[in-house]
Amino acid sequence: MTDHYTRENLIDYQHGALAPQADAAVFAHLERCVECSALHDEEAALGERLRALARADEREFPSMVKARVWDAVRRERPSWIARLPLRWGPALAVPLAAAFILGIYFGTPVIRGTVPGVSASFYLDEHSAEAQDNPLGPGAGPTVYETSDRTASSSAASYIDTADAATLDDADGANR
Amino acid sequence: MRTARLLALFGTLVLTAPAPGEAATHPSIPPAVAAATDARPLIVAAVAAPQHVSFVGQMSWIGSGTRQAFAYVAKIEHRAPDETRRTYLAPRGVYGEYVVSRGAMSYDVEPSVKRVVVSENRAVVDPVAVVDDIALLDGNYRAVRSATDDVADRRTDVVDLVSRYTGERAMRLWIDSETHIVLAKEAYHGDGSLAWRTRFDEIRYTDAIPEAFFATAIPTGYATVHGRSYAQQGSLTSAVSAAGFTPITPKYLPDGFILSGADFSQTPDGIKNVHLLYTDGIRELSLFENASDRAVDFGDMQPHLTSFGGHDAQYAHQGPDTLLAWRERRLTFLLVGDLDLTELIPIAKSVVP
């Protein structure tokens, strides 16, 4: 037996990329060809090892957004309500806490319909920051999430302030 | 370190491939199914190139949305093996902001607010093309050299990354034929439309880049903010512990996607979120969950209503990304990624089948 399949052929076979006729031919060939069978096993083992490595490794995340969020949290001054118990002690804090809990209990149905939602741009920016770590991603862009330290961009746009971005409306949009 | 390990493994794979002409004869394979030109050696070379090649240049990025495209322009200086400075030139709002990466450390200098965010592990040695997670990539995509082209007055090999599951081209790379630096990249949606692209407008290879370009001393009057530490691992266990509730994971993911990490995030007003990140090597997908009663505010993203599995939901497109938000089991969920709505809904359905 002098005919052998190439490594590329066998990779295609392993990924089910061959047409049924070719797939059957490779299958039959592997049954009787020691060399191709060994190459096939080697490729399969290598593929498994690579996949195992890919599953085992955890991706490291950039955390520029998180740093800014925590920075904003740290800079935020406690409200006067938060400072009140410290100033007046438990004697005032306990009844205030009780009143606060009762207020929350009775007020929740009303509040529920009026509280502001969580900004979608926050999630978009968190996602973009994590995705920057993907070596095949678009790479790190400029600052994407705006805390109180910077002028807020409208939607954070995930990437850039739309007012400053090169905005290319499509034909439909341009005609509106 | 992981890059080196994967490179070694992948290099073994490439180097053990038979040399041209080595195999005397081959059984016949129908032309339609014969393997196309295997470009994995080019990918390996592209991964290693920034460790050996220094350059200066200017690059642009364009992200394509449903009705709009977003862009930025940056100047790049890279000195092998691992020093990179990226200075943003446009849009005006970020003009002058720059990021210096030295090894595993990254310094994000923001003149507008006079501060420097110092992080570990954000550093991306090559601004365009560190093709790191080759193992996952190799499992999901076939690398095919399809043509030659010119980018920034340089001759390039054009490499397509084609999904092994759908046969669709997901990404195209333009790799400098001589230096193997990736000079351009394009990512495509499932329907073939362009999702985003990066491209060097100009590039010049030189080792004569002044040390001052990569200075990391904190400028006088600037505040220093510490970003993520390398020791902070993104694991599901730690994310669950920090969030205070048990997240629900989807039972279905598109072919090739795996959970690549989990994180805990907190909004400025204190909403705790678990962030699950999935990838297939090219595309990224995030699932956020929180136990608050707060809905997702899409702001000016012009959300649309939809429903699936008895749930009302909202979705919006922003740049190349799609967002899908809904509530069930007293949790708020939000999926976001550069996938189409038709790909997101089956995932959402599988969260609580």
What tags apply to this protein structure?
heterodimer; A: 176 residues; mainly alpha; 2 domains; 8 helices; rod-shaped; B: 353 residues; mainly beta; outer membrane lipoprotein receptor (LolB), chain A; Phosphorylase Kinase, domain 1; twelve-stranded mixed β-sheet; 5 helices; disordered N terminus
Summary, kept brief:
The complex is a heterodimer of chains A (176) and B (353). Chain A is mainly alpha-helical and 176 residues long.
Draw up the topology in text.
The complex is a heterodimer of chains A (176) and B (353).
Chain A: H1 7-14, H2 20-32, H3 34-56, H4 64-75, H5 80-88, H6 90-112, E1 118-119, H7 120-131, H8 171-175
Chain B: H1 2-15, H2 40-48, E1 55-64, E2 69-79, E3 83-90, E4 98-102, E5 105-110, E6 115-120, H3 134-140, E7 141-151, E8 154-163, E9 169-176, E10 182-188, E11 194-205, E12 223-226, H4 236-243, E13 258-266, E14 272-279, E15 284-290, E16 296-297, E17 304-308, E18 311-318, E19 321-328, E20 331-337, H5 341-351
Parallel strand pairs in B: 6-12
Antiparallel strand pairs in B: 1-2, 1-11, 2-3, 3-4, 4-5, 5-6, 7-8, 8-9, 9-10, 10-11, 13-14, 14-15, 15-20, 17-18, 18-19, 19-20
Poorly predicted regions of chain B are 1-27, 29-35, 122-132, 229-233
Number of helices of chain A: 8
Helix content of chain B: 10-25%
Largest sheet of chain A: none
Order of helices and strands of chain B: HHEEEEEEHEEEEEEHEEEEEEEEH
Q: Mean pLDDT of chain A, as a whole number?
A: 64
Report the CATH topology name of the largest domain in chain B.
Answer: outer membrane lipoprotein receptor (LolB), chain A
- Beta-strand segment tally of chain A: 1
The largest chain-to-chain contact, stated as pair and per-chain residue counts, equals:
A-B, 96 and 122 residues
Identify the overall geometry of chain B: globular
